Amino acid sequence: MRISVIGTGYVGTVSAACFAELGHEVVCVDIDRAKINQINSGVPPIYEEGLSELLRKHAGKRLSATSDYDNAVKRTDISFICVGTPSDSSGNIDLSIVKAASASLGEALKKKKDYHVIVVKSTVVPETTEKVVLPIIERHSGKTTKDFGIAMNPEFLREGKAVHDFMHPDKIVVGSLDTKSGDIVASLYSGIECEITRTNPRTAEMIKYANNSFLATKISFSNEIGNICKELGINTYQVMSAVGRDFRIGPHFLNAGAGFGGSCFPKDVKALIGKAKEIGYEPLLLNSVIAVNEGQPLRMVKLLKNKLGNLKGKKVAVLVLAFKNDTDDIRESRSIPVIKELLDNGAKVSAYDPMANENMRKLFGGIEYYKSATDALRGADACLIMTEWDEFKSLDKEFEVMKQNIIIDGRHMLTPKKDIEYVGLCW
């Protein structure tokens, strides 16, 4: 089929490339001319494992990019809304970009005679597709759902593994108001072996939020248990290893540490909290999930103070900066509150990340960034390990360049070494 993808962020670019890999003709739409040029040149605007290969393979053939909504809609049969849904100052979902994309699609549909399906793939709270997107499209197109289809198709992609997850999903969810539009969306995935859950849009939206909120809950639960274990002298990783063998629980997302970050979990849990409060329900468990997560990284600085005392003038190396390994994404990274707390306490921060230095520099321009762990560690009084990059598992002699060998490990990355004062966050 012929597909247009609105938005070229993580979800949009990966979805476009993967749909092209499945044999569809795909047009990406974005207002950012630099991104358009990159995609048309076969260069991904973001880092994602396997994405470069797909863009080089399909750019100029099955895949192209443009800023022209009208032409993109005219040339395609189905449009995916893949724009960002950030949190506002209160933590509630900001739908301004979704609304703008919906209005542009409506204007483009006004000029098209053929049946067209609009699919929301952006993560939006329940009722958004039906009560926000649909009315905007109807108002701007002058048409009704007799003339076009509307559906919701949430994504379940892990950053760093998004291409793999798209091509090898554990679930595909299609929520539609009518059978015809749902059938069209489901048909796009015919090359993938996976059961498709068919439902209505608001249920599809809720599945996405319930999914992410449960995973975030597992992380905060593990961190809460880890904090208790720390005080009792218990290795929480041994505890959770045994707990994870229970088939009803499973081993994933039980690793205690500095908490969760990224573009999904914090934003999605807060958005669901906001939606719950909107309908008069106080989500006590979800509030606790966020509270534990926000306090977790600051425990690392507390442990550091216990070892160094006053941090003023002390050099602290922070490894690393992205919210997780294998990405350059720093959104809601647990390094951000840690660096801020260190600076507020007068510490001198040196930092290193294999990919995220430049992104973090936009937030903290006054700290020192280095091209290797060794350079960042040189002369440091302490080191904080923030993310699970594989290259840090083998750190050993690199610590010899430190002034003091104090390591606060927030991710259970290292094996304690002789002559190194090793402190685990939750163990």
Structural description of this entry:
It is a single chain. The chain has 2 domains: 2-199, NAD(P)-binding Rossmann-like Domain (Rossmann fold); 235-427, Rossmann fold (3-Layer(aba) Sandwich), CATH 3.40.50.720. 42% of the residues lie in helices and 14% in strands. The protein is built from 15 helices and 14 strands. The chain has helices spanning 10-21, 33-40, 51-58, 69-75, 96-110, 128-141, 162-167, 179-187, 201-232, 236-243, 265-278, 284-308, 335-344, 357-361, 373-377; strands at residues 2-6, 25-29, 63-66, 78-81, 116-120, 148-152, 172-176, 196-199, 315-319, 348-352, 368-369, 382-385, 406-409, 421-424. The strands form 2 sheets. Strands 3-2-1-4-5-6-7-8 form an 8-stranded mixed beta sheet, sandwiched between helices. Helix 11 packs across helix 12 (284-308) and helix 12 packs across helix 13. The model has no long low-confidence stretch (mean pLDDT 96).
- Total domain modules: 2
Strand content: 5-15%
Number of helices: 15
CATH class of the largest domain: Alpha Beta
Rounded mean pLDDT is 96
Tally the beta strands.
14
Instruction: Give the second-level CATH assignment, the architecture of the largest domain.
Output: 3-Layer(aba) Sandwich
Order of strands, widest sheet: 3-2-1-4-5-6-7-8
Radius of gyration, rounded?
23 Å
The name CATH uses for the topology of the largest domain is Rossmann fold
- Terminal Cα span: 53 Å
List low-pLDDT spans.
none
Overall structural class, as computed from helix and strand content, comes to alpha/beta
